[in-house]
Design brief:
Length: 89
């Protein structure tokens, strides 16, 4: 099983999104793998209380996720997007 994880916006310091393919079946496992494999990105996404930072949008197959993420199951070819927004006008 492969799930595509994309990091975009202010989370990456480049104009091209960073794409990461994982074999995880649960959203929570993706977060734990992120903490282990990409700690600097993890710190940009997760605050010191273990919650998603307020400026990070999280999408699963184009639908914004809100609230509790621990029980979300992932399926083959799912796409997860983490996008950081920048404040300003």
């Amino acid at each position: 099983m492969s799930v595509q994880i994309t990091f975009s916006g202010s989370l990456v310091n480049q104009s091209t999104p960073e794409v990461w393919n994982v074999l995880e079946e649960e959203f929570e496992s993706v977060i734990l793998l992120l903490k282990k494999e990409k700690p600097s990105l993890y710190k940009k996404i997760i605050d010191s209380n273990g919650n998603f930072r307020s400026f990070v949008g999280v999408y699963l197959n184009g639908t914004q996720l809100e609230g509790h993420f621990k029980d979300i199951k992932l399926r083959q070819n799912d796409e997860v997007l983490f996008i950081g927004s920048v404040a300003g006008g």
